[in-house]
Design brief:
The chain is built from 8 helices and 4 strands, in the order H-H-H-H-H-E-E-E-H-H-E-H. Helix content is 75%, strand content 3%. Keywords: Coiled coil.
């Protein structure tokens, strides 16, 4: 029996008061839920009698009333049901906790593995980065040395460029002078070419004359003898050749070249050419002596003083 039941019977109270007391306790227990109900039941029943079975309840004294038995049985059943529910809930919670613990442990293991792999990867990456940094430092040193060499080369090239600019300016001046000389030479060349063309024309004309056996001494436009023939007659008469022999002298000299005169001039035309020569020579002497001072005329051919002028 429970302690509270024995204590009630020891006090020798009446059955009605016991019944009312039990009903009140039952109402109080049914009105509460959860932990409050469990604490109230534990306070009512002793811990040693909480797991009392149906056999102990049936061994109550026959002197006790059936109502006490029924109330006690109901309370014991409720307590057992609550204990079973609590035990099942506790078991479920344990299982859930075990599952969650297993899951958390697995997750922790996975995270640890990931952290290990990530740490290893990071270590390898750090090593790679360190090797790259070393390579970059070495390349930076090489680049610095190359930059120094290039800077020295740039200075040298600048000096060379200045010298080249000076040389270019000198060459430009030389080229300008040369262009001027080239222009002058071109103008001279043009003159020489024109002279060469004239010489070619004359040579062609002379060749034609050479090819022709007869020499034409008449000018069709002027309808007179050519100036070359007149000059030849004047030159021959100046060599103290008589006028009657001038034509024969010309023919004999032309025979040596295989040529002959196409027209044979008359004696009168040759005399006219010689007289024209004398007139022209006298005019020339007069023009030369016009500005001279202290001039005299000699009747004879003796030369005494000063310069003589012959016509």
């Amino acid at each position: 029996m429970c302690k509270w039941f024995t204590e009630i019977t020891k006090n020798n109270k009446e059955k009605k008061t016991l019944v009312t007391r039990l009903h009140r306790l039952k109402k109080e227990v049914s009105g509460k839920r959860g932990l409050e109900k469990a604490t109230l039941l534990t306070n009512i029943f002793n811990t040693c009698n909480m797991c009392a079975s149906d056999s102990k309840i049936q061994n109550l004294k026959s002197t006790e009333d059936a109502t006490y038995k029924r109330i006690a049985e109901d309370l014991a059943n409720e307590l057992q049901i609550n204990q079973e529910k609590k035990s099942s809930e506790v078991n479920q919670l344990k299982r859930k906790l075990e599952k969650t613990v297993d899951l958390q442990e697995r997750k922790i293991k996975k995270v640890k593995m990931k952290n290990k792999t990530s740490s290893e990867n990071l270590k390898s990456k750090v090593q790679q980065q360190n090797s790259k940094i070393k390579k970059l430092r070495y390349s930076c040193k090489n680049l610095k040395t190359q930059n120094r060499r290039l800077s020295s080369c740039v200075v040298k090239h600048k000096s060379y460029a200045k010298e080249l600019k000076k040389n270019l300016t000198d060459k430009e001046n030389i080229n300008k002078s040369k262009t001027d000389e080239i222009k002058k030479l071109k103008s001279e060349l043009n003159k020489i070419q024109s002279l060469y063309k004239d010489a070619l024309k004359q040579s062609n004309e002379n060749a034609e004359l050479v090819n022709d056996k007869e020499i034409d001494i008449l000018d069709d436009k002027l309808r007179a003898y050519t100036p070359e023939f007149r000059q030849a007659v004047m030159n021959i008469s100046g060599k103290n050749v008589a006028t009657e022999h001038i034509v024969s002298v010309i023919n004999e000299s032309l025979k040596l070249a295989g040529k002959t005169l196409k027209q044979i001039p008359a004696r009168r035309t040759i005399d006219n050419i010689v007289t024209k020569k004398i007139v022209v020579s006298n005019i020339q002497v007069g023009q030369c002596l016009q500005d001279k001072e202290k001039t005299t005329l000699y009747s004879d051919e003796t030369r005494k003083f000063g310069k003589t002028y012959n016509s």
